[in-house]
Write a structure and sequence with these properties.
Layout lengths: L10 E2 L9 H15 L4 E3 L6 E3 L2 H8 L6 H6 L3 H7 L1 E7 L8 E13 L2 E12 L4 E8 L4
Parallel strand pairs: 1-5, 3-7
Antiparallel strand pairs: 2-3, 4-5, 5-6, 6-7
C-alpha cells in the first residue's frame, strides 16, 4: 500500500491578525471559526474519514488555550489542513473525556505562514458512534 504524503501546502498570512489586541484576536478568531467552519464536514485524504467541525471546537481552539497571531491565522485554512493532514499516531482517551470518546488521531500537516513552512499538529477525536471531530491544533515547531 502506498503511503500518503501531503501534496498541497496551504498558505496564510498573520499580517491582519497582528494588528489586533488580545481580546480582539480571540473574538475575531472565534467568530471566523463559527462562520467558516461550524457544522462543516471535510474528508481527510489520508484516512478517508469525514471530520466534522463543531461549535465546541471553536471555544477550545480560540479560548481554551493561548491564542496568538499564527494560531488565529491558521483558522483561515483549517479545513484544508484537516483535508491534507497525514496520520501520525493514535492517542488514547483521557480519564476526563466523555464516555463516547474512544481516542484521538494525531495528525501532522504543513502550512506556509508568512512564507515560512511550518509543521502543525492536529487532533481528531474518535467517537464510538463512528464520527470524527476536529478538537484542536498546536504548533509543533516554533520558528
Amino acid at each position: 500500500m502506498k503511503k500518503y504524503k501531503q501534496k498541497i501546502i496551504p498558505m496564510v498570512s498573520t499580517e491582519s491578525w497582528k494588528q489586533l489586541t488580545k481580546k480582539e484576536l480571540i473574538e475575531h478568531a472565534y467568530e471566523l471559526y463559527l462562520s467558516k467552519l461550524s457544522g462543516v464536514e471535510v474528508i481527510n485524504e489520508d484516512l478517508g474519514i469525514t471530520v466534522k467541525f463543531e461549535k465546541w471546537s471553536a471555544k477550545k481552539t480560540t479560548k481554551g488555550s493561548a491564542l496568538y497571531s499564527k494560531k488565529a491565522a491558521i483558522i483561515e485554512v483549517l479545513d484544508d489542513l484537516v483535508r491534507y493532514a497525514e496520520f501520525s499516531n493514535w492517542g488514547n482517551r483521557k480519564d476526563n473525556d466523555i464516555t463516547s470518546v474512544i481516542g484521538y488521531f494525531n495528525m501532522k500537516v504543513m502550512v506556509k505562514i508568512d512564507g515560512i513552512l511550518e509543521h502543525i499538529h492536529l487532533v481528531i477525536q474518535v467517537k464510538n458512534n463512528g464520527k470524527f471531530h476536529y478538537t484542536m491544533e498546536v504548533n509543533k515547531k516554533n520558528r
